[in-house]
């Protein structure tokens, strides 16, 4: 059972992850129809509250809510005019007064969604909190992997790049290891430090050490906005040592999956030709993001106990 909120994948049971991914598979059917809308969340209000920029996560949550017939309201918070703590709570009180059923929140501070979940009875979905977690991204990545690999149990996933500052990496690491996958990481010392030993991963030093036997290679954007200066000599040097170009891709298994949460920096962490290659699952990740977010909203808010396949023919 999913519980009241979606805050993190750390501690989420295998059964719950499977329930979400199985529900997402059913939701994906809705996206393949001519009329991409089903009624289970009719009359419910989903608010998106983003204190950090986003393209795909915000639009994907909004689209997911609309496909389930919920109303959506989007608060675009100008980061410069807000700070954490009391101001966040004041913003939340204002939004709460509009009686939403769920709030999808992205914030630069780890733990902000937890604060909103503890203090209000609405459902909270964490859309990324600082360097902590990005659980819906981890789930959509797992769905994309499961589609191709059939099972996550025993899958070998290599995560390359700025693991230290990546909430995407953290959510994937917790989720994937719960599902029985083996995660190895590689990146420059400033972005992939030894303290990562707190995470259930094996650390290797070079990208060449991890690509050869991986079923999945997940690349990460360098989190410039969370880094101090002087952790990276230059993007060109990063690309030379840690970028996945065609030459490195050829060292991997021919059926390897290449993933990236986006936004991608072509020519830095991923070669332009690799991003557009047959092995790239980047656009499948985007499509699966809608299905996973539909599943999450449905499981958290759909109180009428009907499964999506039972309600899906009643288009209104
Ligand atoms: C990620 C994020 O915001 O954490 N993007 C996303 O949600 N698709 C990764 C990133 O910004 O690098």
Topology:
Blueprint: H1 14-31, E1 45-50, H2 56-67, E2 71-76, H3 86-96, E3 102-107, H4 112-119, E4 123-129, H5 135-149, E5 156-160, H6 167-178, E6 182-186, E7 202-204, H7 207-211, E8 216-219, H8 235-242, H9 246-249, E9 257-259, H10 272-275, H11 282-301, H12 308-311
Parallel strand pairs: 1-2, 1-3, 3-4, 5-6, 5-8, 6-7, 8-9
Helix pairs in contact: 1-5, 1-11, 2-11, 5-6, 5-11
Description:
It is a single chain. With 316 residues, the protein is α/β, with parallel strands linked by helices. The protein has two domains: 14-132 and 285-312, Aspartate/ornithine carbamoyltransferase (Rossmann fold, 3-Layer(aba) Sandwich), CATH 3.40.50.1370; 135-281, Rossmann fold, CATH 3.40.50.1370. Helix content is 38%, strand content 14%. The strands form two sheets. It has a five-stranded parallel beta sheet with strand order 7-6-5-8-9. The chain has a four-stranded parallel beta sheet with strand order 2-1-3-4, sandwiched between helices. Helix 5 (135-149) packs across helix 11 (282-301). It is globular. The protein starts with 13 loop residues before the first helix and ends in a 5-residue tail after the last helix. 45% of the residues are buried. The structure holds N-carbamoyl-L-aspartate (NCD). Residues 56-57, 128, 134, 137, 167-168, 221, 261-262 line the site of N-carbamoyl-L-aspartate (NCD).
């Amino acid at each position: 059972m999913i519980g009241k909120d979606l805050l993190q994948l750390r501690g989420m049971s295998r059964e719950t992850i499977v329930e979400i991914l199985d529900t997402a598979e059913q939701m994906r059917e809705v996206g393949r129809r001519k009329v991409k809308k089903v009624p289970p969340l009719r009359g419910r209000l989903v608010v998106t509250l983003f204190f950090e920029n986003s393209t795909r996560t915000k639009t994907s949550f909004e689209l997911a809510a609309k496909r389930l017939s919920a109303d959506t309201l989007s608060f675009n918070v100008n980061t410069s005019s807000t700070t954490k703590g009391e101001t966040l709570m004041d913003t939340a009180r204002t939004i709460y007064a509009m009686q939403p059923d769920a709030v999808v929140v992205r914030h630069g501070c780890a733990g902000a969604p937890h604060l909103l979940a503890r203090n209000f009875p609405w459902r909270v979905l964490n859309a990324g909190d600082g360097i902590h977690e990005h659980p819906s991204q981890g789930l959509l990545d797992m769905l994309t992997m499961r589609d191709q690999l059939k099972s996550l149990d025993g899958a070998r996933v290599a995560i390359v790049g700025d693991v230290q500052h990546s909430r995407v990496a953290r959510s994937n690491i917790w989720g994937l290891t719960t599902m029985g996958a083996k995660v190895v990481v590689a990146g420059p010392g400033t972005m992939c430090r030894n303290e990562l030993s707190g995470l259930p991963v094996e650390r290797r030093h070079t990208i060449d050490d991890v690509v050869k036997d991986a079923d999945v290679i997940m690349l990460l954007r360098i989190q410039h906005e969370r880094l101090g200066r002087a952790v990276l000599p230059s993007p060109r040097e990063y690309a030379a040592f840690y970028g996945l170009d065609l030459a490195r891709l050829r060292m991997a298994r021919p059926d390897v999956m290449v993933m990236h949460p986006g936004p991608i920096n072509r020519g830095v962490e991923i070669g332009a030709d690799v991003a557009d290659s047959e092995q790239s699952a980047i656009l499948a990740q985007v499509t699966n993001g809608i299905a996973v977010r539909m599943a999450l909203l449905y499981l958290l808010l759909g109180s009428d106990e009907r499964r999506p396949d039972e309600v899906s023919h009643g288009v209104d």
